[in-house]
Amino acid sequence: MAEQNLTAIKKKENLLKGNMFPLCAVALCLVTRLLFFGRYVDEWDSVNFAFGLSKGYDILHDQPHFPGYPVYMFFSWIGYKIIGSDIKALIFSGILFSSMAVFPLYELAKRMFSKNVSILAVILYIVNPQIWLQAEKPLSDAFGLFFVITAVLFSYLALERVAISKDIPEYLERNENNALTYLAFSGFLLGLGIGVRVTYLALAPVMLYVAFLLRNIFSVRRIVAWGGLGFAAGVSSWLVYLIIHFTPGKFFKKFLRHAEYHFYEDGNSIVTTDSFFERVHDIAYRFIAHCMGLWWQDAFLLRVVPTIIVVVSLVYFFKKVKWSEKIRFLSVVFLFYGLWVLFIQDAIRQIMVLVPFLAMVISAGLLYFYTYYLKNKRYGRISFYLMTGVFILSHAVDSVRIVSINRDIKPPSVSQIDYIKENYKKEDTKFYCLNDWRLFQYYAPEWCDRKNTHVYFVSHMNGVKNDLKRLKKKPENVLISSKLFGRHKYADRLKELAVFERDVYGVADYNLLALYRFESKAKIKEPVERRDHSNRQGIVEEQEGMPLVKFDETR
């Protein structure tokens, strides 16, 4: 009995020793994120998430918007009950789960390549600028990385069992259901992940690819039973609640309206893209500069260093890697998710999903570079450690710069609201805007009423004209957001009041906002001199008693 207890203790010690690095890496990732905890709700999606906690979960009224992100909202709701702050609960759940994602990433990289590759991949994940930034925002993208990486890990574990069974036939007899169990877990986690972001549906072909390979060992019926039921259980855990709670008719109607708006009207799919080449350019910019933290013409100069190292690592990876089952598996991940990005959704937050997997490729390439080029050279080991250290340090410095901006400097959208509140009275003012309308509901609810008296949601200047025509009492101050389309038609009537900006890598979509006053024709005496927004000098002028200020939030 004593010998059995001693054996059990030794096994636990070995297990802890083997997992010491990933556990420490999880803790390090968590601490670094907590040190730069975000403070602002700065765009449409994050406001919807916040209202889903503070005002009640209701996808019919965009609290949050369809499909409701129920898995993310459930864990954030738990945090909200404990913390009492909607924004802190949303951010903390993202910080926690994105940190936990380090463990499955380490295990996946170790099984596909080596322990050294897994260590480097985890470090690159922790210091990646976009992954770090998204963890500090009240959004679901960093949160969802845990489900994505873990689902892919279990799919690979199932694939691994197939390979072992081919080499060791008796293995299958002893561990008959292991591959199917892993496939079921992969399906379940992917199903849960879709409840975080529907985008993860693009990874379903990875699971189908593994299921296709399993057909040579198991019957199709068993594969469908295990994998299909696992996926169905994951999806049902949140979808059934939504359908029952909001009724099938209302849920389906909201689904159709959301799909029409998101993919055909104002979404970021290939259908709503004017130029395919422009779309490819935008994807390249978002992937290279934002997601990978590499150099671009508007990026931090220090990024030249990691760019050179990444290029070298990719060259050696494709030069030395052998085409094998694990590489085919990884190719399926990149191929199908890449097609989703190319044709369906190309936002930075969607592209970011590929970063952890590319971190493995880069890490493997660096190890190949060391093995085949530096290892046998004098000072080769020192050169490799120096190069790797500079790579990691440059990424870390850039990431700290970005998350510090996110934490310490007001987003332009919030600065614009504060400016309007401080300089105008809502009784004689009307602000025409796009997504800023939702932010007003969060930061200045007193400006929002059911009659849209003070803040009016509109996308085009034609909507402004039509609304002003129907008003019996015209507001004294008509303010216009720079996000409205068709402003060039009324350039002589728009007088710029303020410009709000922040580093483009700290907030990509609303890094620059301008506020205008829409003058009546009777007040126009001479053409308005248009000023170049690229001029970043602080300018203070007086125009009819109102301060005209250009804010440079980056200084």
From TrEMBL:
GO BP annotation list: lipopolysaccharide biosynthetic process
What sections of the protein cross the membrane? 20-41, 90-106, 112-127, 139-159, 179-212, 224-244, 300-318, 327-345, 351-370, 382-403
According to the UniProt record, one GO cellular component term is: plasma membrane
Q: Which InterPro entries match?
A: LipidA_mod_glycosyltrf_83, RgtA/B/C-like
One GO MF term: pentosyltransferase activity
* UniProtKB keywords: Cell membrane, Glycosyltransferase, Membrane, Transferase, Transmembrane, Transmembrane helix
Chief location of this protein? membrane
Q: Which Pfam families match?
A: PMT_2
**Can you name this protein?**
Putative membrane protein
Species of origin reads: Kuenenia stuttgartiensis
